[in-house]
Amino acid sequence: MADKPKYYITTAIAYTSGKPHIGNTYEIVLADAIARYKRSQGYDVFFQTGTDEHGQKIELKAEEAGVTPKEFVDNVSGEIKRIWDLMNTSYDKFIRTTDDYHEKEVQKIFKKLYDQGDIYKGHYEGMYCTPCESFFTESQLVDGKCPDCGRPVQPAKEEAYFFKMSKYADRLIEYINTHPEFIQPVARKNEMMNNFLLPGLQDLCVSRTSFKWGIPVDFDPKHVVYVWLDALTNYITGIGYHCDGESDEMFNKNWPADLHLIGKDIIRFHTIYWPIFLMALGLPLPKQVFGHPWLLQGDGKMSKSKGNVLYADELVDFFGVDAVRYFVLHEMPFENDGVISWELMVERLNSDLANTLGNLVNRTISMTNKYFGGTVTNKGVTEEVDADLKAVTENTPKLVEAKMEELRVADAITEIFNLFKRCNKYIDETMPWALAKEEDKKDRLETVLWNLIQSISEGAKLLESFMPETAEKILAQLGGGHVVEKPEILFQRLDLEEVMKKVEELHPKVKEEKEEEEEGIDI
Ligand code: MET
After folding, report:
1. What does the alpha-carbon distance between residue 241 and residue 238 come to, in Å, rounded to a whole number?
2. How confident is the model at residue 113 (pLDDT cuts 50, 70, 90)?
3. In this structure, which residue's CA is closest to atom 8 in ligand 1?
4. To the nearest whole number, what is the mean pLDDT of the chain?
5. What are phi and psi of 233, to 5 degrees?
6. Distance 497 CA to ligand 1 centre (A)
7. Can you tell me which atom of ligand 1 is nearest the CA of 265?
8. What own/partner pairs with CB < 8 Å and gap ≥ 24 does 263-269 have?
9. In ligand 1, which atom is closest to the CA atom of 24?
10. What is the atom index within ligand 1 of the atom nearest the CA of 234?
11. Tell me, what's the pLDDT at 4?
């Protein structure tokens, strides 16, 4: 077997503090599209995701829920995995930071870093953000609030272990400057340099004593390992890294990671702390960290109190898995935040999926059945109008590849749908129903349908990375020119009013807000 190039891609591991909403689900679908695409390109892909299960916030949530932290995270991690599976994501490994092998390795890593003098014991005094589990200096606060989440911070002091970040800062600056592809999108690089690296890195507090739910420091067990040191190392423990001996073959093959896909809010942890931990362990740095934008709900950020939180499983009930994959991938631009709303989803479903794609496949199959009893071959009666369809069909894979190289996934999907639109235009141009009326145009008509089936199939093959089930269904129904008798409707059109009625039953808050708005208009 010829050696294929490896491609190791990871997502951030999701906090097990609650059920993930569609914004969190977006990331795993995005990673899945990239992983599937790379596989289709012949890469030997390893795709890792998982859950981040320690920390004070989870300890508090478990207490509120009246269960042990472990019971709490078992439940939420199970729920997250269920949603990742529902979304048909093809991850190879689902790591949990409560997995035994991970906990043991984190303890060894902590000890190794302590023994080699990178970690030392001291005291921490500063402003602490509980939800983010981060200390900040006064100067780092934004309007006196946490710079990461904007919530209030409290003064706090505790005995803690620290990591000597400054020792590695120059090497990291050098690395970032000589590897322009490392931080994506590029705009984020300047933010990291100017706000954190160039002003001088503070040593990082890497243990806590104020709560228990974490991995104990084995030589000083009243401390638990700071959650980011615990969480970030998942990328190496998950593939069998051993800091005190031979690592597994899996690790040797896959490290360094080709891509860490994360949300833009945690770029700092992945492009500063993580590379420095790796340098301290003598390991090569990941090739690329991509901080994707956020997916917002129509009128602002999703929040439970607003009653406007969208959950993947609920959306799947309305639209089906592939439609939801399409919405999140297609609505998310490369750098700016994406917006999603029920109105937009219904519109996309009806126009892009039911009309442009579903109707195209359906019409092509119906015509092949009607005029040729379900089977066409290439009769080679070519006309000038075919040339552009052919060119677009041949060019689309290259365009998709170019977009995927840059991780512009939304643009890649748009290219595929441009091909489907071109197919629809080809039907308008060639008017098969008119050709069918002329006896001497039979071979031309068969060529037209053959061309259509070829182009749709090419599009469907490309679609496999983004909407795998739909791609498979299309290819099965077109059968390389031998089409099915009764095509399955790929996407059922939905009526916005009916959808909104059901949504309002499910989310009473949405209704109240709407009524308030209406009353406002009356006055
Ligand atoms: N749990 C973190 C978050 O959701 C990500 C950790 S990635 C190592 O922000």
Report:
1. 8
2. very high
3. 232
4. 93
5. -70, -10
6. 38
7. 9
8. 263/12, 263/27, 263/291, 263/292, 263/294, 264/188, 264/291, 264/292, 264/293, 264/294, 265/148, 265/291, 265/294, 266/12, 266/291, 267/183, 267/188, 267/191, 267/192, 267/291, 268/192, 268/196, 269/228, 269/232
9. 4
10. 8
11. 84
Asked if residues 483 and 369 have their Cβ atoms less than 8 Å apart, the reply is yes
Q: Using only C-alpha atoms, what is the Rg of the chain?
A: 27
Residue 483 has what DSSP assignment?
-
Distance from Cα 263 to the centre of ligand 1, integer Å: 9
263 CA closest ligand 1 atom index: 9
Ligand 1 pocket residues where CB is under 6 Å: 12-15, 52, 231-232, 234, 266
| Nearest CA residue ID for atom 9, ligand 1 | 266
ipTM of the complex: 0.98
Kindly give the distance from the C-alpha atom of residue 261 to the centroid of ligand 1, in angstroms, as a whole number.
Answer: 11
Angle of CA points 393, 396, 398, to nearest 5°: 130
Taking only the tens place, the pLDDT of each residue in 7-41 is: 999 999 999 998 888 878 999 999 999 999 999 99
Q: Which residue bears the tokens 């490290």? A: 255
How many angstroms is it from 455 CA to the middle of ligand 1?
Answer: 41
Q: Note the residue count of the chain.
A: 523
> What is the sign of the dihedral through the CA atoms of 395, 398, 403 and 407?
positive
Pairwise CA distance, residues 474 & 171, whole Å = 51
User: What's the predicted TM-score (pTM) here?
Assistant: 0.92
Mutate to test the pocket of ligand 1, among 266, 271, 289 (most ligand atoms within 8 A of CB): 266
* Residue 499: count of CB within 10 angstroms of its CB: 17
d(CA 77, CA 58): 12
12 Cα: distance to centroid of ligand 1 (angstroms)? 5
